[in-house]
Amino acid sequence: MEKKEDKLKDIISHAKEYGFVFPSSEIYDGLAAIYDYGQLGSELKNNIKTYWWKAMTQMHENIVGIDAAIFMHPDTWKASGHVDAFNDPLIDNKDSKKRYRADVLVEDHIEKIRQKIEKEVAKGQKRFGDDFDEVQFKATNPNVLRNVAKIEEIENRMRESLEKEDLVAFKQLIDDLEIACPVSGSKNWTEVRQFNLMFATELGSVAGDSSKIYLRPETAQGIFVNFLNVQKTGRMKIPFGIAQIGKAFRNEIVARQFIFRMREFEQMEMQFFVRPGEEMKWYEYWKEQRTKWHLALGLGEKNYRHHDHIKLAHYANAASDIEFNFPMGFKELEGIHSRTDFDLKQHEELSGKKLRYFDPEINENYIPYVVETSVGLDRMFLSVLSASYHEEKLSDGSERVVMNIPPALAPYKVAVMPLTKKDGLPEKAREIIDTLKFDFNCQYDEKDSIGKRYRRQDAIGTPYSVTVDHQTLEDNTVTIRDRDTMEQERVNIDVLHRIIDEKVSLRKLLTA
């Protein structure tokens, strides 16, 4: 566990040092759970967006994209259920004056019990050595069984109180477990109350004329309210999809784990409109398609798993998460949901406008069902950083930090380096950049020894480094170095474009 936490710290530190991610407003000591993407981070982020957008729209004739406004009519959020039901249970400690999510306090308590189980297992392993049978040990050891029963009882009580919205019972659970404030160590808690996660503001500059509106907590509703606009203007036939990339805002009580959970974040969502009764076929189709999209990046199949929801949201009849093995463990990366006709039906009722589709094939008017794919862009970014960051010991005893970012997503595709700053080598290097820069993001690098420059490019994930030396001026050849293998090859300048393109083209990912 400690090793994983250390890896997250290393990634955060590396991301700041090399210009991937900065704490927001850092000169004013930052703002909790808000981050800025630096010069390399914004390039990587844009490349992830491009990969998603092309895979969704360019590769599918029946999916188009929109860009809806962040501000929406407040009734939008009444219809979607966010005004009444978008809440987290909140509790304050009277002594430390710190605010917590009540369910997170209980989950952290459960995690401590889980760690006791792991300690028992480790002791058993030490005692029995090669003869140790972990499954049998967990099924028979009295300490393990007692702790498993404790966890089950706590989870059942928490689930029951949340489902019934019984906040008194939730507070009683916290009291019974004797949970103390991590800061003050005190058990002096307020009552548990519901906290709406939407940021509210006012539209209009004159008090009295202004009305309360919200920063959108998700991007999906911008798609639903534009369903008919897109369908009619694009002459779309069901099944069809609408894709969108955009910012969303949630006033998280406890936002943590770097860019995994932020108050301002970006989503890449696609709502796929289908005939009622055909939603499960398309749900399975999109589960498979989205898994393929992730695996094409080559971040390691073992880093992904599916988690099908047992308890479904009020609007869904099926839901599954693609989880990724982050430094904090397996967490949700993307959700695939069968949302039924809930959203369009709600908007039709509250707006009084018909949101139906006439299907000429079956001669019927109906509200379509929706299958949603929704991936957090910031989480996607963190998954790439986590899987790409490696500290390697080399055969000569030296070490390097390398970011094995999928080449198509790398901020810079190639670095061009003159061996020295004289004899016409810088001019030749810039000449090479001038032929490559129309298709690839290039970096010119002439500072420090060539070895240090290679290390620097490894650390920012540049797939190729090209060195211009005195021989280049004689025969038009350069040395090209591969980031991952560190192998170097002498090639003619004329074939550089083809070599780089073969490795970094998005086509490779899109056809995988």
UniProtKB/TrEMBL annotation:
Its EC number is 6.1.1.14. It catalyses: tRNA(Gly) + glycine + ATP = glycyl-tRNA(Gly) + AMP + diphosphate. GO terms for molecular function: ligase activity. Substrate binds at residues 101, 218, 265-269, 372-376. ATP binds at residues 250-252, 260-265, 332-333, 376-379. Keywords: Aminoacyl-tRNA synthetase, ATP-binding, Cytoplasm, Ligase, Nucleotide-binding, Protein biosynthesis. Coiled coil: none annotated. It is an enzyme of class 6 (ligase). InterPro entries: aa-tRNA-synt_IIb (IPR002314), aa-tRNA-synth_II (IPR006195), aa-tRNA-synth_II/BPL/LPL (IPR045864), Anticodon-bd (IPR004154), Anticodon-bd_dom_sf (IPR036621), Gly-tRNA_synthase/POLG2 (IPR027031), Gly_tRNA_ligase_bac (IPR022961), GlyRS-like_core (IPR033731). Residues 152-411 form the Aminoacyl-transfer RNA synthetases class-II family profile domain. Gene3D superfamilies: 3.30.40.230, Anticodon-binding domain, Bira Bifunctional Protein, Domain 2. HAMAP family: Gly_tRNA_synth_B (MF_00253_B). Homodimer. Belongs to the class-II aminoacyl-tRNA synthetase family. This is Glycine--tRNA ligase. It comes from Wandonia haliotis. The lineage of its organism: Bacteria, Pseudomonadati, Bacteroidota, Flavobacteriia, Flavobacteriales. The gene is glyQS.
